[in-house]
Amino acid sequence: MDTLNIRNKNLYLNDVKLEKILKGKQTPIYIYSVDQIKKNIKEIQTSFKKAQPLICFAIKANSNINILKVLKKKNIGADVVSMGELKLALKAGIKPNKIVFSGVGKTEQEIKFAIQKEILSINAESSNEIELINKISGKLKKQTNIGIRLNPNIVAKTNKKITTGNKTNKFGVTIENFYNIITNKEKFENLNIHLLSVHIGSQIKDILAYKKVIKLIDNILIKLKEKKHSISYIDLGGGMSIPYFKKDSKFNFKKFGIEVDKFFKKHQKKIIFEIGRYLTGNCGIIISKIIYIKKINDRFFVILDAGMNDMARSAIYESFHEIIPLKKNRKKFVKKIEFVGPICESSDTFGIYNNYFLLNEGEYVCITNCGAYGRTLSSNYNMRPLIEEIIIDKNKYRTVRQRQKIEDLI
Ligand code: LLP
User: Fold this and answer.
1) What atom in ligand 1 is closest to the CA of residue 278?
2) What residues contact 100, with CB distance under 8 A and at least 6 apart?
3) Kind of pairing between the strands at 77-80 and 99-101
4) Which of 56, 344, 366, 370 is catalytic?
């Protein structure tokens, strides 16, 4: 997280001392850095010299409308997967012609709404769905632009819970199925099949899997040309990784950009990406207070007021989010400590450290890299309210979502 920094032994996000924000506030709190998001956007946009892709933000990574507004101002579109996300994108001011709709289970109601809004593309994931879109489109007397999501059977090296391009996954259609649909496209008289999409998974570190996808699409486009079928857009999905561990290297966007530019030069198709994590993952933190420090045998449990309901990634994917105290530079404590939340199950853990800093009850820590799939995976488990969210822009900060009230949950 480039914007997290230490000054005079205090942790800052941009130019704001985090401790200062906490005055009169109830923790845990999500805090996001606008500067970091802007840096990420710039890095991505400048990696493609020729292709100039449309970058759609995968809203499932972060659904705060103020963050969407920051992205929108920088020409980012949206990748949505539900009526809720679509309405949110529109409310944030993102134009329908920059919105793609993904997902294996779009309902009739959702499809109807997307058709009426005339979004850039409804990316269908089965023949059944295509038939339904065609039917609804006919009823509404519309000609609808759709995409077909291909399951390329290319396995990306990542956590198996978040791979999506394997033939055993529920996503997309097979290549045979794809050709079959394209060859019979006249059957779908109310549709214009103008896009081919692929998304092989999330937190993918190596560009090799993407190279395989590009190669496959290259072949498909050559075949389509022979058969005199054409497609205007290639949507290469998202999935680019961010470093969670200090030793992790960054996803090489520059190198990736070169590959994509080559592909673009050859086929001259408009390129789309559906990027979530890389845009917002490293822009967000959670500040949490230590409620108790409890010793059981040789292990010290540091019990935080943030739990798996506030940030589920560690519990679901055993993912690592480095924890940093707000006050730094003090003695190391040469024992095993485990950061845990208050939730009543043992999966509610944020990781074990050997040789961590000496900590005290009542002090605050920062959980890093929570800007993607943090708040959006939160729940009210254990009747706990969803927590406050704050945005920092340069040296100013403001609350952008209030903490829920327990009364509203009852
Ligand atoms: N497009 C589609 C069709 C997707 O399903 C996803 C993510 C994305 C784009 C964005 O992928 P990204 O660029 O963010 O990697 N909850 C998990 C991640 C689930 C990803 C689901 N799909 C986690 O916290 O790691």
Assistant:
1) 13
2) 56, 77, 78, 79, 80, 119, 120, 121, 122, 123, 147, 195, 197, 235, 272, 274
3) parallel
4) 344
Compute the distance from residue 54 Cα to the ligand 1 centre, in Å.
Answer: 17
pLDDT in tens, 100-151: 999 999 999 999 999 999 999 999 999 999 999 999 999 999 999 999 999 9
Confirm whether pTM is higher than 0.90. yes
Nearest-CA residue for ligand 1 atom 15 is 239
β-sheet bridge partners, residue 277: none
Q: Where are the domains of the chain?
A: 4-32+282-409, 47-275
Alpha carbon distance 192, 172 (integer Å): 18
In eight-state DSSP terms, residue 326 is S
Residue 329 has what pLDDT? Answer: 67
CA atoms within 13 A on the CB side of 344: 4
CA–CA separation, 143 and 55 (whole Å): 25
Confirm whether 56 is a catalytic residue: no
Whole-angstrom distance, CA of residue 362 vs CA of residue 12: 19
Query: Is there a contact between 143 and 192 (Cβ–Cβ < 8 Å)?
Result: yes
Q: Is the CB of 279 under 6 A from ligand 1?
A: no
Using DSSP, state whether 330 is helix, strand or coil: coil
CATH class of 47-275: alpha beta
Sign of CA dihedral 6, 8, 10, 12: negative
Residue 311's alpha-carbon distances to 131, 378, 401, in angstroms, are 38, 6, 16
**The CATH number of the domain covering residues in 4-32+282-409:** 2.40.37.10
Question: Would you say the CB of residue 371 lies under 6 angstroms from ligand 1?
Answer: no
Dump pLDDT digits (tens) for 390-403: 999 999 999 999 99
Is the distance from the beta carbon of residue 237 to the nearest atom of ligand 1 less than 6 Å?
Answer: yes
Task: Give which of 339, 323, 325, 236 is closest to 278, Cα–Cα.
Answer: 236
Identify the H or E element spanning 121.
Answer: strand 121-124
Per-residue model confidence as pLDDT tens digits over 279-324: 999 999 999 999 999 999 988 999 999 999 999 999 999 999 999 9
Record the tokens describing residue 77, joined without a space.
């579109």
Cβ–ligand 1 distance for 275 under 6 Å, the answer yes
